[in-house]
Amino acid sequence: MTTLSITEASRSGLSALVAAAEEGHDTALSRHGKVVAEVVSAREIAQLRQDRETLRDAALVMARFATDSGVRTTLDQAMEFFNLDRAELEAENAEEAKTEDS
Questions:
Q1: Do residue 48 and residue 62 come from a single domain?
Q2: What's the predicted TM-score (pTM) here?
Q3: Which domain holds residue 50?
Q4: How far apart, in Å, do the first and last CA atoms of the chain sit?
């Protein structure tokens, strides 16, 4: 990867940076010796975004696996816990549906 100061990158021109990125040559842009941005191809960004989503999904699976006790709760158990019964729940749903239709 090439590193250029922002001034150097400005002198070389945006077209040159984009052409290099399209060819797979990433360019880091620095300000006061610190990299603050990178010019990379759209294909590279798409792959990074896909990898990020894959890693996020993997982390969720791992977290669920690590915290899963194996105990499952039925709807009736959950309703009992929250002091609800099916008739009340159905009445609330019907009222909400009626309100949404108005």
A1: yes
A2: 0.55
A3: 42-71
A4: 60
Same domain? For 83 and 96 the reply is: yes
Structure tokens at 29: 């842009």
Check whether residue 58 and residue 81 sit in a common domain. Answer: no
Q: Where are the alpha helices (DSSP H) in 1-102?
A: 6-12, 14-22, 42-67, 75-81, 86-101
User: What total of structural domains would you count in the chain?
Assistant: 3
Higher pLDDT, 55 or 102: 55
Assigned token pair, 57: 């999904």
pLDDT tens for 55-100 read 999 999 999 899 988 889 998 898 889 988 888 888 889 999 988 8
